[in-house]
Specification:
Blueprint: H1 2-29, E1 41-49, E2 71-73, E3 82-87, E4 93-100, E5 110-112, H2 114-120, E6 129-137
Parallel strand pairs: 1-5, 2-4
Antiparallel strand pairs: 1-6, 2-5, 3-4, 3-6
């Protein structure tokens, strides 16, 4: 009877040791260096910018749309996701937050606020430009 406690104790210690060995690498390998926002996904396509008639209206996220904010509409990622949108021609980029959706029939990958579109140079006569879109995640990346 006295050995029953000992064998249970040994099993518990063995399981604890295995658990520790399994997770020890994760626990002790973490460093305190600041991390840049990892790129989760990259895609290319056409970008446009919102018409002025949408200014002051609610977006799909509930925010009020403003042409001066660095926001966009995108159907490929969830609301609140931060994107780096780069104009392929000019190589200029801007960080924008997804706060709206694009009409499902529109073939564009992103619809930018006018302020964001001006920063990367797609406010030409037709208002469309080819862009690279990098998904950065839901936390605002450091500049």
């Amino acid at each position: 009877m006295k050995y029953a406690f000992t064998s249970a104790f040994i099993k518990l210690m063995a399981v604890s040791l295995l658990f520790f060995l399994f997770f020890a690498g994760e626990i002790f390998s973490q460093d305190n260096k600041p991390k840049t926002a990892p790129v989760e996904k990259v895609f290319y396509g056409q970008a446009s910018f919102y018409a002025n008639k949408f200014a002051g209206r609610k977006t799909a996220s509930g925010e009020i749309f403003s042409q001066t904010k660095m926001t966009c509409a995108c159907n490929a990622v969830k609301m609140g996701t931060w994107l780096r949108v780069t104009n392929v021609r000019t190589k200029k980029s801007v960080l924008v937050k997804v706060n709206d959706r694009i009409h499902p029939k529109m073939k564009r990958v992103v619809d930018l606020s006018s302020g964001a579109a001006k920063k990367i140079g797609i406010t030409s006569s037709n208002g469309v430009g080819r862009v690279k879109v990098e998904v950065l995640g839901t936390t605002k990346p450091a500049k």
